[in-house]
Automatic annotation (TrEMBL):
This is tRNA (guanine-N(1)-)-methyltransferase. Keywords: Cytoplasm, Methyltransferase, S-adenosyl-L-methionine, Transferase, tRNA processing. Residues 1-223 form the tRNA methyltransferase TRMD/TRM10-type domain. It is found in: Cytoplasm. Its main location: cytoplasm. Its EC number is 2.1.1.228. Homodimer. It catalyses: guanosine(37) in tRNA + S-adenosyl-L-methionine = N(1)-methylguanosine(37) in tRNA + S-adenosyl-L-homocysteine + H(+). It is an enzyme of class 2 (transferase).
Amino acid sequence: MNIQVLSLFPDMFTGVFGASILKKAQEKGAVQLSVTDIREYSGNKHKQVDDYPYGGGAGMVLKPEPMFSAVEAITAGKKPRIILMCPQGERFTQKKAEELAKEEELVFLCGHYEGYDERIREYLVTDEISIGDFVLTGGELGAMTVIDSIVRLLPGVLGQEDSHIQDSFSTGLLEHPHYTRPAEFRGMTVPDVLMSGNHAKIAEWREEQSLKRTFERRPDLLEHYPLTDKQKAYIEKLRNEQ
């Protein structure tokens, strides 16, 4: 996969792209990550890429020329998904990450200032994504979050190929609790079932804990989850206990 980012502050990506899973993914050849400064395509000696909004108002608006020129230059001959990081976009989910992980080319647009010229949104962009109902200074942090979520799903990136399958939201539920050594720490113990060696019982415990945690913390996820009769009975038991 090839992921390219257009940003006014490319240095923000240096640490994130050069460490942890994203660094390993590049070393393994699973992904190519590059960041381009939008100002390189400003078309003027002052590197200006914003201007005052028509009709007046506070703030500055990102001009269409630099963004169109930059995208056309880095995508020549290709038709990638072009993703605008924007608080008005669709809420980012694990399902969206899995969808984008199937693409070969992705371009992320990160803006600052008051917003984008609407022609960028209307004629250039294929997807608009928001990472939550809040406003950030720019799209860079959101793009980093989305890129990390996508890259870890690529084949060969994680140490164990199926390690992401049981992640929270990948199954539609929150993940079950995890424990490791020591079995007893300051009077706090690991559940006996996890040390029993009975894999069927362990799987049952993990499923119940996943349901319980989702019921307690994100009950909204259960509204669209295809519960089995056994799972429905367990949820009803939790409701009665509550």
